[in-house]
Design goal:
Elements lengths: L6 H24 L6 H14 L3 E2 L11 E5 L2 E3 L14 E10 L2 E10 L5 H19 L7 H14 L3 E2 L5 E3 L6 E5 L16 E4 L2 E3 L5 E3 L6 E3 L5 E3 L2 E6 L2 E4 L4
Antiparallel strand pairs: 1-4, 2-4, 3-12, 4-5, 6-10, 7-8, 7-9, 9-14, 10-13, 11-12, 14-15
This protein binds magnesium ion (MG).
């Protein structure tokens, strides 16, 4: 069953999404060479608690932190650490979820640490634009895998590959709800989107091949070829007026 959220529920999801956006901007401002990923995590956690919400990832299936911080060839689910200090030229994907007043928000972005390579810039830009393309498809009557394919088509056109082992998801009163939202697929197929569906759309795009490994910590997903990966995510409501991005100001 895919939940259709009422206008009242969308207002609450928007509040959670807005907080996620604020936390991401705050963390982004603090990204610089020398800072540890644990320090970024603390900044995020303090802000979420200060605003009366709860970090959604902490304790989820045993995940130990507020943020997922995934550096360079790490794709998603990187665990913040005091030992992991950011270096000039790194890229870092920051993913955060909050639980506020019964509803979840979830979003991610990838940012440069100081000056990065042109190729890293291009990977981040293509990933962010692939998310924008997918969001444009989040309209009533559209098929889910048309949205999925829009990510794949854009990423592959630019010579990058799509991670297949992790997918986006519905979101609402649970962090992860149906449907699963792959970033590849056959256009014109899949679920018909309806007004009131709320989707966390999250392309993970690799510089090299799509293959994934999970490190010994049981969480950190990395590219098998150790080439770069980028990740952008928004929580988006399907509405009669078209896509409504909830995880922004
Ligand atoms: Mg998500």
């Amino acid at each position: 069953m895919i939940a259709l959220r009422s206008k009242r529920e969308i207002v609450k999801l928007k509040a959670a999404g807005r907080m996620v956006a604020e936390v991401l901007q705050l963390v982004k401002k603090n990204v610089q060479p020398g800072i540890s990923t644990a320090a970024l995590d603390k900044i995020a956690e303090n802000e979420i608690l200060k605003q009366g919400a709860r970090p959604a990832f902490k304790g989820y299936a045993g995940f130990p932190a507020t943020l997922c911080t995934s550096v360079n060839y790490e794709i998603v689910h990187g665990i913040p650490s005091k030992r992991r200090k950011l270096l000039e030229g790194d890229i870092i994907s920051i993913d955060v979820g909050v639980y506020l007043d019964g509803y979840y928000g979830d979003a991610a972005l990838t940012v440069p640490v100081g000056k990065v390579s042109q190729e890293a810039e291009r990977l981040m830009q293509v990933t962010e634009t692939s998310l924008a393309k997918a969001i444009e498809c989040a309209c009533p009557g559209e098929r889910l895998y048309t949205l999925s394919y829009s990510v794949q088509q854009y990423a592959e056109k630019h010579g990058f590959s799509v991670v297949r082992d992790f997918v986006g998801h519905g979101i609402g009163t649970e962090l992860h709800e149906p449907p699963q939202i792959p970033n590849y697929g056959k256009p014109g197929t899949g679920l018909v989107l309806k007004s009131g569906m709320v989707l966390a759309i999250e392309p993970m795009i690799n510089q090299g091949g799509p293959e994934v490994e999970v490190l010994a910590d049981g969480w950190t997903a990395v590219t098998s070829d150790r080439k770069l990966s980028a990740h952008f995510e928004h929580t988006v409501a399907v509405t009669d007026n078209g896509p409504l991005i909830l995880s922004q100001f």
